[in-house]
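Dear support,

I submitted the protein below through the web form. The confirmation email said the job was done, but the results page showed an empty box. After a refresh the structure appeared. I'm attaching both so you can tell me whether what I see now is the final result or a partial one.
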Amino acid sequence: MQKHRNCPVCDSDSGELFAEARFDPARLGEFAYASRKLPEYMHHRLMQCSRCDVIYASPVPDTSELESAYEAAAFDSQQEAAYAAKTYIKALRSICDRLPDLVGALDIGAGDGAFCGELTSIGFSNVTGLEPSSAPIAAAAENLRACLRQEMFAPGLFPPEQFSLVTCFQTIEHVSSPAQLCHEAVRLLKPGGALCLVAHNRRALSCRLLGRRSPIFDIEHLQLFSPKSLQRLLAEAGLRSVVVQPLYNQYPISYWTRLFPFPPAIKTALLWSLRTSHIGQIPLMLPAGNLLAYGFR
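What the results page shows now:
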């Protein structure tokens, strides 16, 4: 079941058509709703809001359909998750110095808990990760499973002012109501606590060059942000000192190759060559068009 929606940032109903749906249900497999998958280059019908510069899907699947899809999603990106977690913890070190304390952290869309482990390593206690899919939790290291809960983030899961830090990395695009998520996250923060997001930048050079062949156009992504729309999203949630800045990512060369829209035969050959020569394991840092956004309660 599909449902219409207004702009998920400013609730405007005056969005203009950005692109018609490009979606073949027959091509959906076990990795369709998995993290860091091989791109399928499919997306829902997309609208563009001129007021806050966000692209958003409308209509979108019902929440129960999304929950079922994510619960059943496969997982094969443990190595990439570890690389991402190290990138994120490095980016957040200066933010952590400004927090009231290191007691209580919530990671929304935690995957296999790699970032929860990084938080623990720098001194955080009472770390919780929410992850809707069962496969990444099953793949998590034994010492991290205790902090992971298989659950979608929703209002009322936690009492107010429980966390010094709430993070949501490359997940804000996936939720049907990003404004509600941010408002609820702010409610959970202690005074002086921070909400940190990582999101794709639809205005990035890579996206402008690749157009809808960019992997950010995907059936999982119900909205795509720009610096302007992320700034508005966090400010309207009640956060102060909001910062939105580029984030460079480091992944193995083989992962970058998976993302690039080579023709299928060429991509298959390249990935095989990289895998057999071990060149594909060499890490490479690139400006992949991601944004780090944060603000304080």
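Response: this is the final, complete result; the empty box was a page-load delay. The chain is about 30% helix and 25% strand.
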